[in-house]
Amino acid sequence: YLVGVGRADCTGPVAQVPLMGYANPNQVGGGLLSRLYSRAFIVAEPEGSRRVVFVSADIGMVSQRVRLEVLKQLRNKYGELYRQDNVILSGTHTHSGPGGYFQYTLFWITSKGLVQPALSSIVNGIVKSIDIAHESMKKGRLFINRGTVENSQINRSPFSYLANPESERNRYSSNTDKEMVLLKMVDEDGHELGLISWFAVHPVSMNNSNQLVNSDNVGYASYLFEQEKNKGMLPGEGSFVAAFASSNLGDVSPNTQGPFCANTGESCDNPQSTCPVGGAAMCMAKGPGKDMFESTRIIGQNIYLKAKELYEKASQEVTGPLSTAHQWVKMSNVSVELNATHTVKTCKPALGYSFAAGTIDGVGAFNFTQGSVEGDPFWDQIRDQLLGEPSNETKACHKPKPILFNTGEMTWPHPWHPDIVDVQITAIGSLAILAVPGEFTTMSGRRLREAVKSEFDSHGTPGMNIVIAGLCNVYTHYITTYEEYQVQRYEAASTIYGPHTLSAYIQLYRGLAKAIALNATQELSPGPEPPLFNVTNVTLLPSLSTESAPAKKTFGDVLEEVRQEYREREVAEVTFVGANPRNSAENATEHNFLTVERYSNISSSWRVMLNDASWDTRFYWSKGSRGQSNVTVEWHIPAGTEPGVYRLRYFGHYKKRVAFFRVISVPFEGSSSAFRIT
User: Can you give the residue ranges of the Neutral/alkaline non-lysosomal ceramidase N-terminal domain (predicted)?
Assistant: First the structure.
């Protein structure tokens, strides 16, 4: 094949924008722990015209808005080379990235609307990573390997899983998928290019109290692999690209100690995930570390170490033709043939009561509990008054789900949920990547993979490796099995197209697999094109106004100095007169907020050792009154740091009024005093 890899920053604004994932409006960005990247991989047939693109971006999920804008830019740049059928965009599902990049109204509620700077940085970052991969294409080879990752996941809805037939459960040793599938890429001389790993785990080691933008456990795995392969480079630099992509992670948590009551410390591993005192709001899962930062590193390192082992031993070469199959489907109206006599239908989208309960990884508000199959007259009345009562047809279609948000019948100011959804399969030789538009649970994923594999088998292409890529192309929440749906825990309440959603997807993906196997993909109907709503900027974000420094101070001045001396495993920190980090994001996509620098006696100059993409540094912004704000830079000095003289620097932009109607951004910087590490 011809192979190209690329990586580009897609972080966006790290302050004031709500983080996407936990749907917690109080969880607003206030700084940076690690940068977010889009990682792109292009594989093409050397002689033929066929090529495929796989992108894994450090974002909560790919929204339809992001996908349509990316495809538009690619069409303008490359004509018909990169299209909806051969480009897969997948989100890693970190819950610590900026939100606000959606066009459907439901997602505006917790992200303060549509935030153009967040949307633009994601779209531009994805396109840039594809550009870099496109420019770097050369002859190469692909190898596949698979193995088991231990001690890194639990099923967070085990009582739903147990609703699946016993005969089916007995075929599996675990209630999560522990398998990692890894694709290794080298050029024809054997030089390493990159890898994609697919593994099912929620990147929620960082919990909903976190306010620092970061890529969570799978992002830390990428960081470790890229740092190892791009020796001597700063994070985010170097040509080797390692993507840790999402899979069927719907009911899979990295918080391996399981759920405990935050107030009493007793286990709350019960069907409703509630505590005797405080109810569901007190029931939270714990990770393996002493805090969320350490848990993120432990899970990320587990994933990285398994990937490293699989990468080094990968010997099964992937060869054969490339093919792609894609359709747009009106998901609210699919007829599914369960058997010769029985046909069922999907529903208009709706979210159930237990959606509001959240999960043990991030609890909801009020007094909602998981496993609600009955509505509540109080909340029903509020719903009917505020949002309108669901039609009898929708109520009946979703049974036993009691409807809380009747999103499929809400259209102001735009539809609240997508109606038209992408289904897509890309085959690279013997590897078939199923790009799914949401979060399949463990058993849903197993059923989908098995159905697609048997479809390939029965049409003359046996031995396919089937992998699910999660959170692709458009976000449609969760997909549980029919049996799990009856239990109505969070994942089931969030299965928006009703109890037969999974059966519908299985039917659709079988159709795509059959078309690939029979070389008949051009005969698939493209389906109805999704809408691109005319929304530019509808947001409740505070506007960026002019800023000021305290009396007798200027931007970048030190307010709290570092100590003169530190040892390894201590934290060096300095606080500066700061400015809103959003100013910097709007000036440049790749603005670096901080450096850790070491003094070199040989050259009598300062050398940059770390930037703000390092997981050892933290950048905090706190807003004061009267246009003033502070920035704190922390360096968590790792064991093994070379002794010597160091300093911490900060780079920002402040808003200054130069005329009545004109405000400009002025760059500035600050530096701590020098300190010694002993």
Answer: 1-507
